[in-house]
Design goal:
By secondary structure, this protein is an alpha+beta fold. It has helices at about 30-35, 90-100, 115-120, 180-195, 215-225, 250-265; strands at about 1-5, 20-25, 40, 50, 60, 80, 85, 105, 125, 130, 135-145, 145-150, 170-180, 205, 230, 235, 245, 275.
């Protein structure tokens, strides 16, 4: 286990956030020790806005055995492939590519989502093509000092949400995937990739706001004329209105002011998780 004080800006995709004590755990025993004091869990740092002041709690990151990721090869004639356990600290983009390489379908809708597997489960990450919850077979949680396995239906997965017990940590998951021809998987991935072309390449935390029923947050922000709005080095992307980008050296309070300016104009719910104090 590694314990160090770090700037969370270095560990988040938006590139903002103050310092915290970061505990990178590698074994179940490490996890038990790290969670004996107030803690937060950090995946790949996407979908997250961290205060410039950082957070007082320990920040737990999953490493070691919790990053092991094997999907297993489908057997000849197999119609449904139940994968081995996949560590929640594994990175989702690599897993999507590995599934495609093995001829396993079900993860293509998650192409391009820069999350850890555990973080993706917690927020039921997805695109308009599908969500991670649709491919889950079982989820292992660490909660109150013990590990237990849940059926995905017990997580009450919804649109960018789940109902994990307070303090619960996703540690491993199993997927239910479907063997499919390589050309079919490639075609679906190309479709998902084409739909994401408008998303900005600059640092961001992913989509900032949840889509309201029957509409798109990005479209509403565009129609309201808010694209390009700035607060310091934080800007609403000119490429896609539902992304707030860090143009270089942005602070969390600048990002937060942009969030509030959008919400003054539009009744949109924030999709990100927010850590720490913000003005």
């Amino acid at each position: 286990m590694k314990v160090e004080r770090r700037r969370l800006a270095e560990l988040t995709t938006l590139g903002v956030g103050g310092t915290a004590e970061v505990w990178t755990v590698e074994t179940p025993a490490d996890l038990l020790e790290a969670t004996r004091a107030p803690y937060r869990v950090l995946g790949n740092g996407s979908n997250l806005l961290v205060s410039d002041r950082g957070v007082p709690e320990r920040v737990v990151r999953l490493g070691g055995v919790f990053r092991r990721a094997r999907l297993g090869k489908p057997r000849r004639g197999e119609r449904v492939h139940l994968t081995p356990w996949v560590g929640a600290g594994a990175l989702l983009p690599a897993l999507v590519q590995e599934a495609a390489r093995l001829g396993l379908s079900g993860l293509e809708p998650l192409l391009g989502i820069p999350a850890s597997v555990g973080g993706a489960v917690r927020m039921n990450a997805g695109t308009r093509f599908g969500e991670i919850g649709e491919a889950l077979e079982a989820v292992e949680l660490f909660h109150e000092g013990t590990f237990r396995v849940l059926d995905p239906t017990e997580l009450d997965l919804g649109y960018r949400s789940s109902r994990l017990p307070p303090g619960a940590i996703v540690t491993r998951v199993r997927f239910r995937l479907t063997p499919a021809p390589a050309e079919a998987i490639e075609a679906r991935m190309a479709e998902v990739d084409a739909a994401r072309k408008s998303q900005p390449k600059r640092k961001s935390a992913g989509c900032a706001f949840k889509n309201p029923p029957g509409d798109s947050a990005g479209r509403l922000i565009d129609v309201a004329g808010l694209k390009g709005l700035r607060e310091g080095s934080a800007m609403i992307s000119l490429e896609h209105g539902n992304f707030i980008v860090n143009t270089g050296g942005a602070r969390a309070e600048e990002v937060w002011r942009l969030v509030k300016r959008v919400q003054e104009e539009l009744p949109l719910e924030l999709e990100w998780e927010v850590w720490g104090e913000l003005p």
